[in-house]
Design brief:
Strand content: 35-45%
Number of helices: 2
Number of strands: 7
Strand order of the largest sheet: 3-4-7-6
Largest sheet: 4 strands, antiparallel
Distance between the termini: 60 Å
Structural class: alpha+beta
């Protein structure tokens, strides 16, 4: 009888853990990388076009915020020396340091 209750409890835990994933859909993987040049810092966020095209990039003081509304995603930083952190489920905050001027480009092959 105890084993049956344990199985039932484990099954309920699995269901509760999967509900957020099932209700939000697929988890999208985004790659984050940066390169320093003489006059600028280039930050690239790479992923599926349907997700990237719906992203919003804006500056708040010396921070760059990137959000993907209503999208469940994870970020993999690759050789990324710029401090970054997850603000909430759909926003990343980048701290590139003192900078002026923010330019946003969408590139098909950002090599």
């Amino acid at each position: 009888m105890l084993i049956w209750h344990m199985k039932k409890t484990v099954a309920l835990l699995v269901i509760f853990l999967l509900i957020p994933v099932l209700t939000h859909g697929d988890i999208h993987f985004l790659k984050l990388r940066a390169s320093y040049h003489d006059d600028y810092l280039r930050i690239v966020l790479e992923g599926d076009g349907s997700i990237i095209n719906n992203g919003h990039v804006y500056q708040r003081g010396q921070f760059v915020l990137v959000s993907f509304p209503d999208t469940l995603f994870t970020v993999q930083a690759e050789n990324f020396t710029v401090h970054h952190k997850r603000m909430n489920q759909d926003t990343i905050m980048l701290s590139p340091g003192d900078f002026k001027g923010l330019k946003v480009f969408s590139l098909k092959h950002p090599s």
